[in-house]
Amino acid sequence: MGRICIRGGRVLDPSAERDELADVLVEGGRIVAVGPPGADTGGAEGVDASGCWVAPGFVDLHVHLREPGQEYKEDIASGGRCGVAGGFTALVCMANTQPVNDDPSVTEYILDRARQESPARVYPVAAATRGLAGEVMTEMSALVEAGVVAFSDDGRTIMDSGVMRRVLEYSGLVRVPIITHAEDRTLVREGVVNEGPVSTRLGLPGNPAVAEVVHVARDITLAELTGAHLHVAHVSTAGAVELIRAARERGVHVTAEVTPHHLALTDEATLGYDTNTKMAPPLRSQRDVDACRAGLADGTIDAIATDHAPHAVHEKDVEFTAAPPGVIGLETAVPVTLDLVRAGELAPLEWVRRLSTGPARIIGRPGGSLAVGAPADLTVIDPERRWVYDPAKGFSKSRNSPWIGREMIGRAMVTLVGGTLVYDAHRGVLAP
Ligand code: DOR
């Protein structure tokens, strides 16, 4: 971990409202100076960032690393490699592993594996209820002591409102957010695509937007009652965006994330029955996509989170109803979401904020800042770089992406975690 100078890039640091050409000097794992380009840095190793953006490392609030238990889909090492290759320096991993992360021993295992194997920082989320069954709360204080940053039954929904109320009450005591997977199961039923003209044309059971809206309304109401911090995962509907916007205006402690696929694709992408367009919640209508983009732009939605959800080829290569929901997303989030910058909907600094400062604040961990003294977690983005996405050339063990073969514009070129150069697009993943 020597001295590294990131030279001549456009530094975008939302924590300081900084957007200017500058050099960033890193030493001893931390940022030691940010200043005018070209200054003498005393023989530091140089990274040429000219024509590129230099940003705090991205923090993904929502990934499935599949370890322990489903390492054939992904593991902490391969997921960590996908992260740094996509510009992410920290990954918040969901609890639906096997066994479920509902016990400090599982949390400690994940953290231990991450320390040894992952180039990205890993922050585990624990299940809010034992076995994700939605019935009995987990031992929250023991899990927080073990290192979890939030609780969530993601992948499942806590349907029992009394359980959800208690979970929110206790989360306030241990000061971590509850991340809700908001899909009312009694409305979803067998639904696998957004309910509407597309589900009718496909002849597939529909999952209505209202399943999300009803659930977000309930959870906001309970967050308001308890004063707890509610974080809404993968918002996909115009109705949920409206509810969150109104709740925030009332002062409810609610934050939210949206995925790149819900910002970029509508349910029409599913018309070819491609199971790589099946996810939970499903792709929605153009009106919903527009509302999510507007919500991200006006700050109602704090964060872009990938919901990186690897599944093996043999699991996805089946009829649509039988395929598991989810797509990988860590290595394509940058180009897919840069579309909002190109469309003039997000300024570059705001785009960086939604990927770094916003999510870091939600979990209350360092990150999202290039201030002197901050950990040197940063990424260099070439916003113009053109490339064709081929998951076989990427770092995931899985291939389930809706972007296979698509031309991408924008790419993470270099990533540093704690001052160590962990990724270089020309050389690959370099550490650990
Ligand atoms: O699409 C999804 N995949 N949504 C979820 O909530 C779970 C995830 C998974 O674990 O595969």
Give me the Rg, rounded: 20 Å
What share of the residues does DSSP label as strand, in percent? 15-25%
What is the level-2 CATH architecture name of the largest domain? Alpha-Beta Barrel
The CATH topology label of the largest domain is TIM Barrel
* Beginning-to-end CA distance, first to last residue: 12 Å
Residue share in helix = 25-40%
How many separate helices?
14
**Cofactors and ligands present?**
(4S)-2,6-dioxohexahydropyrimidine-4-carboxylic acid
Specify the CATH class of the largest domain: Alpha Beta
Class inferred from helices and paired strands:
alpha/beta
Enumerate the spans where pLDDT stays under 50 for 5 or more consecutive residues.
none
Number of domains: 2
What characteristic shape results from the CA principal axes?
Answer: globular
| Average pLDDT over all residues | 97
Instruction: Characterize the biggest β-sheet.
Output: 9 strands, mixed
- Would you identify the CATH H-level superfamily of the largest domain? Metal-dependent hydrolases
Tell me what you see in this structure.
The chain is α/β, with parallel strands linked by helices. It has 2 domains: 4-54 and 374-429, Urease, subunit C, domain 1; 56-363, Metal-dependent hydrolases (TIM Barrel), CATH 3.20.20. The chain is 31% helix and 23% strand. It has 14 helices and 19 strands. The strands form 3 sheets. Strands 1, 2, 3, 4, 5, 16, 17, 18 and 19 form a 9-stranded mixed sheet that branches. It has an 8-stranded parallel sheet with strand order 6-7-8-9-10-13-14-15, with helices on both faces. Strand 1 and strand 2 form a beta hairpin. It is globular. The relative contact order is 0.17. The model has no long low-confidence stretch (mean pLDDT 97). Bound molecules: (4S)-2,6-dioxohexahydropyrimidine-4-carboxylic acid. (4S)-2,6-dioxohexahydropyrimidine-4-carboxylic acid (DOR) is lined by residues 64, 96, 154-155, 181, 279-280, 307, 309, 324-326.
